[in-house]
Amino acid sequence: MSIECETGEVVHLQVDTLEKADLKGYNLHRAILSGVNLRAANLQKADLRGAIFDDASLAEADLSESRMMNSWLRNADLTGAILTKARPIATDFDGANLTKANLEGADIAWASFKAANLCDANMLCKRLEEANFEGAFYNLRTLWPRGFDPSKKGAILVNS
């Protein structure tokens, strides 16, 4: 894991797991956390701008009210994650598993969910029309705002 300090210095830490870690309000701006286990971690109100979480496990993690602009979560496991009122603006969720994730009130403008699993997710988000859902999977239990048609944005309804 790499973290850039306010001075611009990059600190490298050898960490494989931060499971259940309390990182509430931490500044992890531009942190590299690819493949790290952050299952059930508390990342409420954290600064995650530009952070890289590719292939990381964030299942059941609390990311509520976190700033996630321009972050990378490709192929990440976000099963049951809480992203309420988060700001994953222009964030890359391509191939991520967001099964049962709660994104209610999250601002997902310009975010990409290509081939992401959105089954049973709460997608009552802000600015859905500006997000990319090409090839994302959802089911009848996925919650969408009234009048929003995910299939018109390229999402695929699956039976599950």
Automatic annotation (TrEMBL):
SUPFAM superfamilies: Pentapeptide repeat-like (SSF141571). It comes from the Bacteria. Transmembrane segments: none annotated. Signal peptide: none annotated. This is Gll0206 protein.
